[in-house]
Amino acid sequence: MSVMGLFFLFIASIVVLWLAREGVMSANWLEEGSANWLEEGESVGVAKASSGSVGAPPPAAKVGLGVFLAVALCVFSLLTAAFFMRMGSPDWQSPPLPRILWLNTAFLIASSIALQWAYFAAELDDEARLRLLLKIAAATSGCFLLGQLWAWKDLIAEGYYAASNAANAFFFLLTAIHGLHLLGGLVALARTIDKAWRAVDRAALQTSVELCTIYWHFVLAIWLVILAMLAGEMNAFGALCRQVLS
User: Fold this and answer.
1) Is residue 11 part of a domain?
2) Is there a contact between 204 and 177 (Cβ–Cβ < 8 Å)?
């Protein structure tokens, strides 16, 4: 089996273990219900009442997010492997990093922190603070995306086109795919903000904020890895990957 095959098997194992931990792959509610029926001889309604709170499955949205993050991780892992393999070619010429990328990174960190605080506010049922923090997270995320476009503008203005060099192409490709993931997250965040302004169920709102928080932490972690790659801070790791993959 290839190294990438082993890696995907590792990711799949993590997903399966997470699903098992969340109780998706178990049927505790059925086992408990059957035991109560046989041992106590009670009615079906009583059996369900005594077992409904045991082994309850996680929300479908949380399971879906976990699976999506696993797929996204595999996609970025493939791109990372391709980046390091291509980096070993003699024609590789890394473009200069636009300075605005560091400001963009600060915006993304701020949005991730704001969402974490928003989750705490949702747990405390602090609606005013929750709404403010959600707006801050959306605004800083939007600034990050605008900053990424500005970085593209700077590179193109200096003549670093995607078609002129493989390193340039990877810069645009990695930042574009990451930006699309964040843009999709903003759609979910907009729906969460809408829930915060409407009188919706508190548990549903808290779940929505939690999912956005998890997603933003994931997007931030991916961006930090991408930034380290583009800045040349992972060249030693890339050389090791080339030896393993080749």
Assistant:
1) no
2) no
| Mean pLDDT confidence for 44-54 | 40
Distances (CA, A) of 120 to 115, 134, 168, 199, 215: 9, 12, 41, 19, 16
Amino acid occupying residue 158: E
Closest CA relative to residue 205, chosen from 148, 133, 142, 125: 125
Residue 63 has a pLDDT of: 83
Q: How far apart are CA 156 and CA 169, in angstroms?
A: 12
- Pick the closest to residue 144 from 108, 184, 97, 116 (CA basis): 108
Across the range 115-132, mean pLDDT stands at 94
Q: What is the pLDDT of residue 244?
A: 67
Mean pLDDT, residues 40-45 taken together? 43
Residue 180's CATH number: 1.20.120.80
Structural domain range at position 220: 58-245
Q: Is residue 101 part of a domain?
A: yes
